Amino acid sequence: MRMRLRELVMFACVLCLAFVFTTGCAKKQVLQEGEAAVEKAAGAEVKPATEPGLTPEELAAREKALKEQALKEQQERERLAGEKAAAEKAAAEAAARAGEVLVDINFEFDQSSLTPESREILQKHAAWLAAHSGYSLVIEGHCDDLGTTEYNLALGERRAAEAMRFLVALGIDRSRIKTISYGEEMPLDPAETEEARAKNRRAHFVVTPK
């Protein structure tokens, strides 16, 4: 019985040694294969990405063409931006000059009819507008502080409309002109004197590019 037990123990030890030896060999083989794969990848030549059917010369030529096209587009954007800035500057300068040319006209107390002096001024305005067809005109009607707010708003509108009718009669396209009334809300001179009130009974002209 003891001999039988000893044989079983020895057999188990042999099996364990065989298992350890086999496992070690397998691990060594896996490590060797992994190292070989890494060495192969490291030694492989890195080739640039190419497209099927295109030679390196053709790829270089296409890349050059794309860069040239991008440069042309950038230059075109810069040109358009420069032209826009120049046009805006010219428009601002023209508007500033118009502010010097298109002076206000004044009205008598509680009146919307044009005075002889106002008609002469409007004739000059019409000449300027005819020579600068790229601009529109806003005519603002203003009043003094006498009377109610509602009455002065209506009076300011009549004054602006009268100036517009005169300009249209001189050949200015009606579609280029708009009118608005501010009544007594935007006095040129806020003093409560007759001289100040005479200044505030007016039509003011504002030009803007179309």
TrEMBL record:
It is found in: Cell outer membrane. InterPro entries: Bact_OuterMem_StrucFunc, OMP_bac, OmpA-like, OmpA-like_sf, Pal. Residues 63-97 form a coiled coil. GO terms for cellular component: cell outer membrane. Keywords: Cell outer membrane, Coiled coil, Lipoprotein, Membrane, Palmitate, Signal. Residues 1-26 form the signal peptide. Residues 94-210 form the OmpA-like domain. One of its GO terms (biological process) is cell division. PROSITE patterns: OMPA_2 (PS51123), PROKAR_LIPOPROTEIN (PS51257). Pfam families: OmpA. It comes from the Bacteria. SUPFAM superfamilies: OmpA-like (SSF103088). Belongs to the Pal lipoprotein family. This is Peptidoglycan-associated lipoprotein. It comes from Syntrophus aciditrophicus (strain SB). The lineage of its organism: Bacteria, Pseudomonadati, Thermodesulfobacteriota, Syntrophia, Syntrophales.
